[in-house]
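Feature request, filed as a ticket because there's no other form

It would be nice if the structure record came with a short human-readable summary line next to the tokens. Right now we just get the raw output. Example of a typical job, pasted below so the devs can see what we mean:
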Amino acid sequence: MVLRGLIVAGLAAAGLASAAPQPLAIGHSVRGRPIVAYERGDRSAPATLVVGVIHGSEPAGLAVISRLRRMPLPPHVHLWLVPTVNPDGLAAGTRQNAQGLNINRDFMKLETPEGQAFAKLWNDYDPHVGYDLHTSDGSSHGYYLT
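Raw output as currently delivered:
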């Protein structure tokens, strides 16, 4: 059993094991809920960042993140997975965060702690591609910059 643990630890250190990714706290919401990211795959490959939920009323992206956290990855794939950038909105089922701001429109002024956490992750790890997952019921939303 000890030998197996050492082998798995060695493979994980070399980036060869498919161990479950550990959460990295990247910030906190207005109400203090943690915002976490998970890194998976080949760290020498260009990074792809995937955000499951930025609008709390659009939770379908959580299933995508859950699947990406568990599935085997092909070679040369490097993922950063963020289940939600808006944990307060997700808990309340609202589009906006607890300040009533749309985080998806906060990437210029960075007035929200959630937007600041996301921007720091992006700047620190410099992904080559980013996916911000959304769902829609066909309704129209006004787009206002904060």
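Something like this underneath would help us a lot:
Residues 113-125 form the longest helix (13 residues).
Helices lie at 2-13, 61-70, 87-92, 113-125.
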